[in-house]
Amino acid sequence: QVQLVESGGGLVQAGGSLRLSCAASGRTFSSYAMGWFRQAPGKEREFVAAINWSGGSTYYADSVKGRFTISRDNAKSTVYLQMNSLKPEDTAVYYCAARESLGSGYYIRQYSYAYWGQGTQVTVSS
How far apart are CA 64 and CA 70, in angstroms? Predict the structure, then answer.
């Protein structure tokens, strides 16, 4: 079992940056693949970015590619989402998710993840 706590959300103007953090506790963090998802008001939760256990493989949704960067620090049991050039359409609650995996793969489907954080609000004003 792993517990996930997101932080770093807030209000930012369009074009600005935020860095989200997701701190994990419980089991060995380095045995988990991680992902970020988001849910905007009135919309379904969608995939944002994913990273494998070592950080050597990453994948992004087309809507954030080139603007967002996912990374992890296994020594700190934390995964990050650096968000640059933010747009109003990036406004959403952002969730991190975890699943056990020691392979090279990452996961983009919600059902692939067993553990979820409570979410952190990101609001981008125009």
Answer: 11
CB 32 within 8 A of CB 99: yes
Q: Where are the alpha helices (DSSP H) in the chain?
A: none
Q: If you ran DSSP here, which 8-state letter would residue 104 be given?
A: S
Helices (H), 57-124: none
Confidence grade of residue 102 (pLDDT, cut at 50, 70, 90): confident
Q: How far apart are CA 23 and CA 31, in angstroms?
A: 14
CB of 79 within 8 A of CB of 51?
yes
Strand 92-100 versus strand 120-125 pairing type: antiparallel
Pairing of strands 10-13, 120-125: parallel
CA distances (Å), 104 to each of 25, 27, 33, 84, 107, in order?
Answer: 22, 19, 9, 26, 10
Instruction: Write down the pLDDT at residue 65.
Output: 98
